[in-house]
Amino acid sequence: xxxxxxxxxxxTTTDSVKEQMLFDHCTWDEDYKKITRDITxxxxxxxxVNKDNYVxxxxxxxxxxxxxxxxxxxxxxxDKLLILSNGAYGERMADIAKHNRINYVIYTEDYNKRHNINxxxxxxxxxxxxxxxxxVHSETTSGILNDIEEIGKVVKExxxxxxxxxxxxxxxxxxxxxxxxxxxxxxxxxxxxQGVPGFSFIIAKKEEILxxxxxxxxxxxxxxxxxxxxxxxxxWRFTSPTHTILAFxxxxxxxxxxxxxxxxxERYYNNNRLLIDKMKELGFDTYVDNKYQSPIITSFIYxxxxxxxxxxxxxxxxxxxxxxxxxxxxxxxxxRIGNIGEIYKEDxxxxxxxxxxxxxxxx
Length: 363
Ligand SMILES: *Cc1c(COP(=O)(O)O)cnc(C)c1O
Hints:
Helices cover 41% and strands 16% of the residues. By secondary structure, the protein is of the alpha/beta class. Helix 2 (30-46) crosses helix 9 (242-258). The model has no long low-confidence stretch (mean pLDDT 97). Bound molecules: pyridoxal-5'-phosphate (PLP). Residues 8-9, 62-64, 89, 136, 140, 165, 167-168, 188 line the site of pyridoxal-5'-phosphate (PLP). Pyridoxal-5'-phosphate (PLP) binds at residues 8-9, 62-64, 89, 136, 140, 165, 167-168, 188.
């Protein structure tokens, strides 16, 4: 049975992206190194950075490997990290810090609230040991979008290193990395660039990646070494995910053909708002307030008096061509619908018609 994914990565990709994976590419020669170099170059263009100041490194593994690579390679033994968390991916940063014995503090907000800027300032003022600040841009847990531009200003006002997990936003939301004062930003192949899973990428300020030399707590996730090898001529330190790379390169071209990040954002945003409006008509409220709602994924509150289970609704929808996502908010019964990937207006209309049909059947 075929279905489209309404999950925020892996997501539905085009056939033309998938077709790239029908070829077994060799890795040692100039052809392949050039593809790696092209990809890092295109990513730096998307990040709108000056290429003298910023570098791009690809890292095997899923998105978490990229986040762990940055945290474990950039934060030294005498450094301290402030994690701004309002979701499971912020909490995962704390988990990474624990595993790597990184000194950290965490400022946690409710999953549908943004951080208080004055409170961030107070923490930075009072805890002089803090050297790095990290945050998730688009919290895929709830669908909230954090204001990294405003927070970046505060981080630099206090001269700290700024780390952003932009896993589910990079490529789908414009992020001028240099203007936003970001030192390290992480995303992965299978989110808004619409590739398949297999690696993450890190765009870093050159000055800061140079400081990572000999700091890494792990060999395979050593960001400096990975960059140093890749930067020479496009070589990967260890086996690269060749098929994923070929697919990703095609996905980058397709992003360009769509009209770039702004056009993709427009598609995501319009589909997301259409989804929210139609779901509201069907009786589903959102967990995150509209003004903080990302165009990536939406948490819908499960109706209190519902006489059906999520699994029943999920199966009904899946049999008709779409896979939705369970909720991930503690103490709140919810479910999520993502709208990134090869998803268009007609998909949203079809999905909502399926949900309407389901509700008629159970009521
Ligand atoms: C997808 C995602 C990650 C990485 O998750 P993996 O399962 O390791 O790919 C990290 N942060 C956010 C915000 C994400 O959406």
